[in-house]
Amino acid sequence: MSVVDRRFPATPARLTEIRAAVREAAFLLGLPEATAGDVVLAVDEACQNIIRHAYCGECGDIVVQIGRDGPHLVVRLIDFAPPVDVSRIAPRPIEELRPGGLGTHFIREVMDDVSFLTPPDGAGNLLQMTKRIGEP
What we know:
With 136 residues, the chain is of the alpha+beta class.
C-alpha cells in the first residue's frame, strides 16, 4: 500500500515539504509520534545527503515513496544523479563527533534496514529504508 509517491525538487528549500509528507504518511500508517519523528529525521538526513553529495548542489529531483509492506514501513528515495559508490558511504565513528558525517549513523540507528537497490530505468540511485511497525 503506497501512501506517498511524489517527486520533489532536490533543494534545501523543499525539505520542509518533504518532512511534512513523511510525517503525514507516518501518521496515516499508525506510527506513534516518537517513531514518526524518527522516520521524518531519517528521511530528512537521507534527502540532505542526496542534495549535498549525489547532486553536489546541481538541480535534480527526489522521488519519495512511502508505504507499508506487511509489518514494515518502507521508504524509497529515488534520485536522478550519477550512481553513488556505495562502498564509500559509511558513518563516521561516533568517537569522532563533529559536524557532518553523522546523518548516515543516525539513519542506520533509526531504521531497521537501509540498502541501495537497483534503481528504475532513467534513475541514478534508489535508497530503501524499512522499519518494523507492527501487524498490518
